[in-house]
């Protein structure tokens, strides 16, 4: 089945369409309407007036056309039919429109009719000049997602032209369509572009119409096929056999001051089994805040080093990378492991020294930020790549690190996330990954009580901080911005720091934010860890990785401005010791509906998976996927909350089509992927 050929419109139109991702005829045909307008009937002006407040379409002859300058420049056009007259008011207009709507011209206008000071009027209606008796459309008029310089008329024409050129063959076999009760591809697409006047408009708008169902299924099937193919392709690549769980792994476990939880032990075994295989592991390690992912990743690194290979750990921020470095180096270096440190802020000489250790193979383990993926960094024998907070890296960044293997072998990849992925999302976007879950917190962790407090009660919160300090406890105070923003009027870190230092003269108040030099930041963090700083005012740089067991109070300023996963991450900085911990969410009234839902969720549960599930309901999948798909993998038509049942079916059909590698099935898979992804499969493969 041939892939759709590329259109050849004029260059300017081609570039405008390309900006919307519309590069081929099939792209245009699958650019479906976001809503519809009913231009299939005309009502009299009198009837439209009686239905005031509704959108109506009327037709009449221009009886008056004038430009008024009171209270501002505007074009006033009066049209009339046999039942009455109506004013069309245009605040913004061109000279050509004044001529176009000259007296005596017949106008068809569509808009919301309101009763103004001078009678019935439509403000900025859609209109066209027509001849008497001009036919009405027989189907609803589609309104498409558009871009700058692309009118609906131009888009409609481009789509109609593309529909004449494409191959309409159905890429889902007839047997599967019949079994699933799916309508055929061609009538489904044509109905969505040109719905008949008697169509169920509610089902169309809600995307529950059988035509929409077919589009959603096809989209999900393409995604599942692509991910499963990527998984198979990965299994055909060679990776180092990291079979040894030797002296280092044993000494590491013996040296830990705590025992692994049952969940950690289970996950370690899953990872060990993967690392022994000769194809690249691609495993996502999920665990709630404080569940002990770092120890598990260090044990995976120990297995790589025991097997004679290097391991690399990449974190999204310097403060998080440094937390990992300090913790893992303290475990590993006494056992004779050389741990190298590499970030963008190192001086040239320090970078060169680290690069030398990495290239010579003297560094067994390398920890750092994006600096690890620079061309100047060459590994001697990279066997394992660990990516922390993987959703904060783009596809290209993770791919670059994976390509630093040697001898034509692809390193194993372990991705960690403290943002639990809801099941439907994992099935849809992470179908090419194995997923391990640490679903148990280490013993001795204290429960965290969460309260939402109006910021008018700030003084009470400051007293609470003082009381905690008198009991020998420490507190975090998190602010969303560093500098004053007139637009948002937020309490800033600097301002809060000054207020707290003034209100609590007996306490030591410290501050960290993203614009400080790494050495300055680390100095404050070290003082906080040592207990010399009682209150740490911070921006979200402390969101992940910071571990101070004595800190038992977390205050989050303007909590209504944060996303659920961020609030959950921040709250996870406390409750790491045995003392009862409290998280106070300071908010500014009045709260919007979404903010209310978020704060209520935080008060009701500390379970990261439940929070993730609710976050998916509130925000959709973007929060979890981050830069993973470079913006292209977000589903256009299917909704994961409403269409979860279709995900299951698409996954089963994908499995059936890929089983057995039969030529007729391969042809179906190729045709379906060409239609829906058009060569854009690469983004799903990392």
Structure description:
The structure is a single chain. The protein folds into 4 domains: about 100 residues, Beta Barrel (OB fold (Dihydrolipoamide Acetyltransferase, E2P)), CATH 2.40.50; about 80 residues, no CATH class; about 190 residues, Rossmann fold (3-Layer(aba) Sandwich); about 170 residues, P-loop containing nucleotide triphosphate hydrolases (Rossmann fold), CATH 3.40.50.300. A hairpin with a 2-residue loop joins β5 and β6. The protein is of the alpha/beta class. The longest helix is centred in the N-terminal third of the chain and has 26 residues. The chain is built from 25 helices and 21 strands.
Question: Which CATH class of the largest domain applies here?
Answer: Alpha Beta
At the fourth level of CATH, the homologous superfamily of the largest domain is: P-loop containing nucleotide triphosphate hydrolases
Task: Give the integer mean of the pLDDT values.
Answer: 85
SS content category: alpha/beta
Catalytic activity: Couples ATP hydrolysis with the unwinding of duplex DNA by translocating in the 3'-5' direction; ATP + H2O = ADP + phosphate + H(+)
Domain Helicase ATP-binding: 274-438
Pfam family, one: RecG_wedge
Organism: Massilia arenae
């Amino acid at each position: 089945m041939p892939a759709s050929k590329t259109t050849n419109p004029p260059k300017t139109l081609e570039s405008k369409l390309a900006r919307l991702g519309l590069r081929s005829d099939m792209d245009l045909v699958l650019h479906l309407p976001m809503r519809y307008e009913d231009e299939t009937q005309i009502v009299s002006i009198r009837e439209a007036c009686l239905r005031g407040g509704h959108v109506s379409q009327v037709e009449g002859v221009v009886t008056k056309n004038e430009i008024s300058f009171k209270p501002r420049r505007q074009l006033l056009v009066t049209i009339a039919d046999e039942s009455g007259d109506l004013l069309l008011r245009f605040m913004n207009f061109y000279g050509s429109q004044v001529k176009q709507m000259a007296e005596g011209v017949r106008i068809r206008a569509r808009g919301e009719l309101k009763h103004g000071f001078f009678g019935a009027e439509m403000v900025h209606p859609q209109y066209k000049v027509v001849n008497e008796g001009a036919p009405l459309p027989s189907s609803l008029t589609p309104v498409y997602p558009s871009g700058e310089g692309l009118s609906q008329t131009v888009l409609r024409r481009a789509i109609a032209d593309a529909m004449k050129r494409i191959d309409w063959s159905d890429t889902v076999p007839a047997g599967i369509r019949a079994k699933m009760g799916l309508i055929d591809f061609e009538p489904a697409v044509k109905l969505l572009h040109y719905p008949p006047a008697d169509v169920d408009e509610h089902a169309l708008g809600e995307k529950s119409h059988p035509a929409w169902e077919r589009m959603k299924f096809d989209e999900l099937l393409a995604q599942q096929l692509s991910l499963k193919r990527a998984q198979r392709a990965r299994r055909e690549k060679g990776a180092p056999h990291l079979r040894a769980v030797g002296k280092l792994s044993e000494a590491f476990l013996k040296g830990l001051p705590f025992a692994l939880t049952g969940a950690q032990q289970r996950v370690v075994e899953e990872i060990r089994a993967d690392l022994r295989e000769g194809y690249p592991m691609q495993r996502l390690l999920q665990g709630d805040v404080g569940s002990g992912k770092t120890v598990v990743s260090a044990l995976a690194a120990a297995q790589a080093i025991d097997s004679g290979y290097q391991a690399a750990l990449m974190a999204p921020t310097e403060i998080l990378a440094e937390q990992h470095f300090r913790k893992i180096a303290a475990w590993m270096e006494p056992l004779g492991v050389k741990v190298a440190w590499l970030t963008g802020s190192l001086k040239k000489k320090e970078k060169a020294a680290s690069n030398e250790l990495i290239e010579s193979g003297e560094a067994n383990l390398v920890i750092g930020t994006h600096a690890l993926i620079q061309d100047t960094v060459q590994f001697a024998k990279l066997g394992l790549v660990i990516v922390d907070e993987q959703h904060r890296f783009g596809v290209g960044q993770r791919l670059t690190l994976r390509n630093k293997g040697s001898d034509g072998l692809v390193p194993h990849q372990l991705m960690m996330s403290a943002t639990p992925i809801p099941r439907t999302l994992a099935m849809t976007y992470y179908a090419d990954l194995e997923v391990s879950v640490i679903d148990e917190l280490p013993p001795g962790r204290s429960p965290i009580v969460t309260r939402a407090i109006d910021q008018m009660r700030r003084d009470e919160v400051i007293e609470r901080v003082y009381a905690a300090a008198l009991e020998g406890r420490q507190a975090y105070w998190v602010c969303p911005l560093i500098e004053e923003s007139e637009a948002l009027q937020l309490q800033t870190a600097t301002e809060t720091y000054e207020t707290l230092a003034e209100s609590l003269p007996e306490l030591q108040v410290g501050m960290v934010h993203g614009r400080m030099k790494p050495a300055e930041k680390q100095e404050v963090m070290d003082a906080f860890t040592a207990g010399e700083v009682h209150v740490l005012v911070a921006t979200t740089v402390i969101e992940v990785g910071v571990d101070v067991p004595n800190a038992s109070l977390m205050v989050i300023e303007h909590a209504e401005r944060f996303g659920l996963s961020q609030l959950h991450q921040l709250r996870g900085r406390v409750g790491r010791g045995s003392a009862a911990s409290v998280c106070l969410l300071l908010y500014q009234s009045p709260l919007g509906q979404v903010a209310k839902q978020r704060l209520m969720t935080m008060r009701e549960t500390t379970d990261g998976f439940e929070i993730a599930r609710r976050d998916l309901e509130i925000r959709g999948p973007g929060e979890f996927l981050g830069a993973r798909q470079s913006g292209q993998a977000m589903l256009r038509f299917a909704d994961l909350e409403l269409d979860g049942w279709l995900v299951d079916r698409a996954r089963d059909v994908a499995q059936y089509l890929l089983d057995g590698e039969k030529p007729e099935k391969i042809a179906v898979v190729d045709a379906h992927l060409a239609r829906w992804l058009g060569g854009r499969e690469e983004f799903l493969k990392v």
